[in-house]
Specification:
Bound molecules: pyridoxal-5'-phosphate
CATH architecture of the largest domain: 3-Layer(aba) Sandwich
CATH topology of the largest domain: Aspartate Aminotransferase, domain 2
Structural class: alpha/beta
Number of strands: 17
CATH superfamily of the largest domain: Type I PLP-dependent aspartate aminotransferase-like (Major domain)
Shape: globular
CATH class of the largest domain: Alpha Beta
Number of helices: 12
Order of helices and strands: HEHHEHEHEEEEHEEHEEEHHHEEHEEEH
Radius of gyration: 22 Å
Amino acid sequence: MVNQHFLELQGSYLFSEIAKRRSKYMEQHPDANVISLGIGDVTRGLPQAVIEAMHQAVDDMVNPSSFRGYGPEQGYSFLVDAIITGDYHRRGIELSNDEVFVSDGSKCDVGNIQEIFSQDSIVAVQDPVYPVYVDTNVMAGRAGGFDTALGRYKNIVYLDCSADNDFKPALPTERVDLIYLCYPNNPTGMTLTKDELKVWVDYAIENDCLILFDSAYEAFITEEDVPHSIYEIEGARQVAIEFRSFSKTAGFTGMRCAYTVVPKELRGRASGDNLVSINELWNRRHTTKFNGVSYVTQKGAAAIYTPEGQAQTKELIEYYMANAAMIRDGLQEVGFTVYGGVNAPYIWLKTPNNMSSWDFFDFLLKEANIVGTPGVGFGTCGDGYFRLTSFGSRENTEQAIARIKKLSF
Ligand code: PLP
């Protein structure tokens, strides 16, 4: 017998449908110069400091004296220490090295974390949302089937985000155990201030729930009042797990390296109302099912924290954020309502004339030869919205905006 819950999954329709519509258009218009501002993948090369560190690490692998075989599953101390100093100590957050778990990506971590929680845990997600949170809980049997009329899984609690609440959801009105929050947000590009995030932390403390805080886009924060880590909020160590990735920060989407912070204060309820350490459970899960990120990759990741690495990654991020500003300003100039693009590489726009997300996709492809991502692909609340990314080249971004400015709606 197969895991029946996999059959509850709705087809992963979004990116295949985008590809299908794009190829059909290209077949009919082979000379069209289609620009993609749709995918969430970076396009610039790796920082030089990372490349040099990895070359050196490859040489280390030649000599029996410096060769590395299996390493610690949680990550080499040279990287864990660099993470703690570079990302946390400098913001006044204390962490010990057994609270950081290096991995091959936040996708895996945000997908795997639910394994250590009971099957009857009630899961809350934002809508629109990065689909991995939902789908991994469906696979685990927490969804209770799909309601086609609503376009939602029956047992998942959806926290609606819309223009009415500035894409910042209200607290759940029913009992939930796990709350996935993603800030800076994919797809909306929106953030919470420290006070707004504190409301969630206080709620989790009062209601005995856990926040799974996905901070894959932390490096793109530019505004002062936006927290870089949930642990800047008092009490968060008791209720939050934080996920960070080098993918977008330093061009590691193909290299694969990320980390998850699981504070030792975190407790989960076991049978008989015993409280157990979440850190110990995750450590057990991680060391049993994962054999560590390659030495060469971890050396590359550690180089991000050197002064050269910091300067080079800053330059990379500034490049993308200049694209984001260009998209945001260009769209606003011609009357679009836009969100995001200030503390995140994503620009989330309201479609003109209340077009559906897919109608706007077709319109933009046909009239401007631009591919973006229909907001409805991230959840029912995303309909009528559209996501553009700033990860393209400057030239393509400029051209895309110039084309949009010429459109009439
Ligand atoms: N979390 C969010 C919100 C993302 O958008 C992504 C990637 O697009 C990830 C996690 C996955 O990152 P990684 O490349 O580290 O697996």
